[in-house]
Amino acid sequence: MKVTIIGTGYVGLVTGACLAELGNDVFCLDVDPRKIEILNSGGVPIHEPGLQEIIARNREAGRLQFSTDIPASVAHGEVQFIAVGTPPDEDGSADLQYVVAAARNIGRYATDFKVVVDKSTVPVGTADRVSAAITEELKARKLDVEFSVVSNPEFLKEGAAVEDFMRPDRIVLGSDEDDAGLRAKATMKRLYAPFNRNHERTLYMDVHSAEFTKYAANAMLATRISFMNELANLADRVGADIEQVRQGIGSDPRIGYHFLYAGCGYGGSCFPKDVQALVRTASDYGLPLRILNAVEEVNDHQKEVLIGKVVARLGEDLSDRTFALWGLAFKPNTDDMREAPSRRVIAELIARGARVKVYDPVAMDEARRVIALDFADRPDAHARITFCATQNDTLAGADALVIVTEWKAFRSPNFERVKTELKLPLIFDGRNLYEPEAMRELGIEYHAIGRALHVTV
Ligand SMILES: NC(=O)c1ccc[n+]([C@@H]2O[C@H](COP(=O)([O-])OP(=O)(O)OC[C@H]3O[C@@H](n4cnc5c(N)ncnc54)[C@H](O)[C@@H]3O)[C@@H](O)[C@H]2O)c1
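That is the input. Now the predicted structure with nicotinamide-adenine-dinucleotide docked in place:
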C-alpha cells in the first residue's frame, strides 16, 4: 500500500520504517531539512535499537523515501499518517499547530480519496479540527475530495520502539460510521492485517474514545510511578524498603509489577505533557482531575529528591564539590533528553556551585545541545560541566557518584574502581540499581530512593 508519514520524529520514523519493512511503499515527509538530509545520506537522527538496519534495508529496496516535498507527499499515500509533535502550550494544553498545519497541507494538495490518520497524541475532538482544516482548504480550491480522519494513537516506548511497533499489544483505531469512515476503516484494516495474523489485536471504536484512550493509558502509567515515588519518600521516613514493598504488592496479579519503580521522577516527551494536557482538557470542561494534578505535582517534587539527599549529606554549599553523574537520557536505550530528570539534577548541582562530570552511553550529543540551551544565559556554568567519554572517566577527582538513568552498563560497574577513584565512597542512586546490603559490604555509603533503612553512615 502507498503510505505517507507526516513528521519523521521518534514515532513517524519508526512507523514509516516498520510499515516499509512489511512491504508497503512509504514516503516520509518532514519540514526539517536537516533531518531529511541526514536520512537521505544514510544516517538516522535518533537513537532507537534496530531502527538503522530497517531503514537501510528498506531504502535499498526502494520502499522508503524521505523528503521535504509537501505536494509529493500528499500525492503519494492514500493513507496519510500525521505523526508531528504536540508539545505543551503555555497553559499545558496540547499545542496543535503542527497537526493543523499538516492537515491543511493535505487539504491544499489532495486530489483523490485520503485516509488521514491522527497518530500524534491529541486531545479529544482533534480529529474534528483536522477534518475542518482539510475541508476549509478543499473549499478554497472549490474541490470536493472525499476523505476521512481516523484516530490511531501510538503506544510504542522509546528504546523499544521497533519491537513495540512490530509486536503491538493492541492497535487502537477510532473511525466514523459514515461511508467515508467505513472506507477508511477497511483501508486501515488492510494496512494492519499483518499485525493481526496470529489473533486480532485491533480494537475498533469511535474516534473520541480512541483519542481519549491514549491519554488514559499514559495518565495511568504516570500515576503508578508517582504513587510509588510518594510511598518511597514515606518509606525513607518510616524505615521501610520500597523495593521490598514493590515486590510485595507487585506479586498481586490485580496490581502487577509494571511501572512500580520508585526513582527520581519520570520525564520524556510523553508523560509530562500528556498528563498536563488531560488536566487542561478537564479544566476546560469545568471538571478538575484531582488525582492527575497530584501526579504532576508529586513528579515535579520527585525530581528534587535526589538533590535533597545530596544536600542533606554534603550541605547546601557544594562549591568545592565535584560529582560524577551517570545517565542523561530520560530513560535507557534512547537519546531523548526531553524533560529528563538529569537536567534538573545538573541545574540544582550547578546552582549550588558544584562541578559535574557527566556521561551517557548514547545521549551525549543531544545532552550537549540541550544543556547548552538550559544554561544559555549562564556561561559560567558551562566551564563546570564536563562531558566524559566513558563512565569511568567521570570518577577521577569526583567526591561522589550520582546515578540518574538506569542504563544496563551502570548495573554492575567495577565497584572497587568506583570506590578508589571517588574522593568519598559515596553513591546517590536515583534509580535503585544496587542492593544496599552489597554496598554496605563494599564499604560504600549508599543513598537510594525509599531505601533509607539501609543507609550506612
Ligand atoms: N516519542 C514517543 O515515545 C511517543 C510515543 C507515543 C506517541 N507519541 C506522540 O507522537 C507525536 C510525535 O512525537 P515524536 O516524539 O515522534 O515527536 P518528534 O518531535 O520527535 O517529531 C515530530 C516531527 O514532526 C516534524 N513536523 C512538524 N510539523 C510538521 C509538518 N507540518 N509537516 C511535516 N513534518 C512536521 C518535526 O520537524 C519533527 O521532526 C506526539 O504527539 C507524541 O506525543 C510519542
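The chain has two domains: 2-205, 303-454.
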